[in-house]
Amino acid sequence: MVPAIAQALLGELPVPRMASFSRWRDAGTEGTQGEIIDSGIALYFPAPHSFTGEHVLELQGHGGLIVETLIERVVELGARRARAGEFSERAFLNDKIDLAQAEAIADLIQAGSQAAARAAMRSLQGEFSQRVQATRDALTALRVYVEAAIDFPEEEIDFLASAELRERVEYVRALLDSVLIAARRGALLTRGMTVVIAGAPNAGKSTLLNALVGFDAAIVTPVAGTTRDLLREKVDIGGVPMEFIDTAGLRDVTDDAIEAEGMRRAREVLQHADHVLYVIDGVTDPSGRSFDATRSALPADMPLTLVMNKSDLVASSTDSDPPGPHLRISAFTGEGLDALRAHLAAVAGHTEIAGGSFSARARHVNALEKAAAQLDTACRQLAAKHGELAAFELRDAQASLGEVIGDVTSDELLGHIFSSFCIGK
């Protein structure tokens, strides 16, 4: 259909993969040449040598309202308007790119920082897919080895207890752990990191938010409980997009219903943070006791940094510093803020990103985590000499890895992924 449309619209089929100037005409009346709609550059890519693997005609015109007239003419000739993400979907279905690469196109368009854009480009070029495929290949080799042991039980060597099997398992686990860590950081880079600023009233949370974002986003007063609701601001830290959430001060009891609601919201958002900056007043609470009550309410694996604020008002070190890692800063003077920013960038994986990370999504992380859990189950079955059950788990782990790159997928998943793309991609 594309060659026929090109012939009708341009009067000729352009030379493949060569830019040429042309005029694009409407249908005209019977026996007459149509009027010129627009003029510009035409590029023709015959199948399979195109982005989608199909015949593609690209027209580069002057834009504006005339584009709609041109689209109407092309539709009149037999084309239809593309669905959101349909070009990328067709490229995937025609094996021009895998699913992770297709998603990287959307990530590249929506990148909120240069680091995110670079990571998306690496995924688009196939770095993420290659690492997943290498892990899958090693897992396949492990499965073949286990199934061979099942098929030849009369052999004198106990394959399921051999040193070679242990080495193969450890190799697969190392590959899977490595790509999972990178994917988690890539997903964090793609969507940004949510950092919740929490602490007791008057610890300096709002002052810290203002210092980090570079303007007075939050109202700051000496009155305890000034912040009543969640305040969100986005800023780029070390190339990583971060959303900081300032929260109401936390204390045991209050007679103020509005403040109580603010604390409830603060505790709720703490449960879903990527990282928590717990701010402590270094003057009135040098040992960090205000954190004791909050600690038990947080998820055990919650990434958290204790921030000892108001360092300009206290000695550089005290005997009653809180136990464990912490940073000393002054949100008022800016002392220690560069170290805090560097710390947050490191938490988000900035050093790995700078060295060549890739973009990833939550579904990629979920699939990799599922594969890791299935590998763990397979290892337990191997230890119990249950080779058939281990092989079953290894097969499922293979399928989980296949979900990342699209070897194993469903129409429902494809529809969900590509519907989030912009029109024309």
Features:
14% strand; 9 strands; 425 residues; 15 helices; 6-stranded mixed β-sheet; alpha/beta; 3-stranded antiparallel β-sheet; flat
Oligomer: single chain
Low-pLDDT ranges: none
Helix content: 40-55%
The N- and C-terminal alpha carbons lie at a distance of 20 Å
For the largest beta-sheet, the strand count, sense and barrel status come to:
6 strands, mixed
> What integer value in Å does the Rg equal?
29 Å
Q: Mean pLDDT, as a whole number? A: 85
**Shape, please?**
flat
Strand order of the largest sheet: 5-6-4-7-8-9
Beta-strand residue percentage:
5-15%
Tally of helical segments: 15
Strands, count: 9
Topology as H/E string? HEEEHHHHHHEHEEHEHEEHHHHH
Helix and strand arrangement:
Elements: H1 2-10, E1 20-25, E2 36-45, E3 56-60, H2 66-76, H3 86-93, H4 99-109, H5 114-124, H6 127-151, H7 163-191, E4 193-199, H8 205-213, E5 231-237, E6 240-246, H9 257-270, E7 275-281, H10 290-295, E8 304-309, E9 326-328, H11 337-347, H12 350-354, H13 362-383, H14 387-405, H15 411-418
Helix pairs in contact: 4-5, 6-7, 6-14, 7-13, 13-14
